[in-house]
Specification:
76 residues, alpha+beta, four-stranded antiparallel beta sheet, 2 helices, 4 strands
Length: 76
């Protein structure tokens, strides 16, 4: 069995611990990239923080597992 190189190990660790990224933020909606469907709480907290900038609250619209995106509506 071949040994894993330090670079390969680092890539695996970074991939496992990656967080959602902000793709789009408007007063009416938020779209997160790299949003894993099993990290719902983390995704919602990030979207809520963005919606709060406009005095609104995040409401989940849906996730796309293939594209790893999560969409939220910012409601008053």
């Amino acid at each position: 069995m071949k040994k894993l190189t330090p670079i390969a190990i680092a890539c695996v660790l970074v991939g496992c611990s990656s967080s959602p990224t902000l793709e789009i933020s408007t007063p009416k909606s938020v779209v997160l990239g790299n949003a894993k469907y099993n990290q719902t709480v983390k995704n919602l907290k990030m979207a809520e923080a963005e919606c709060q900038k406009y005095g609104r609250h995040a409401v989940a619209i849906g996730t796309n597992k293939k594209d790893k995106t999560a969409s939220f509506e910012c409601k008053e």
